[in-house]
Amino acid sequence: MSIRLAILVSGRGSNMESILRAIKDGELDAKVEIVLSNNPEALALVTARKYGVHAIAVDNKGLSREEHEKRVLAELANYDIDLVVLAGYMRILTSNFLQQFKHKEGYFKVINIHPSLLPAFPGANAYEDAFKYGVLVSGITVHLADEKVDHGPILAQETFSRLESDTLESFKARGLAVEHKLYPKVLQSIAKNGIRLLPNEELIKQ
Ligand code: GRF
Question: Which of the 8 DSSP states describes residue 94?
Answer without folding.
Answer: P
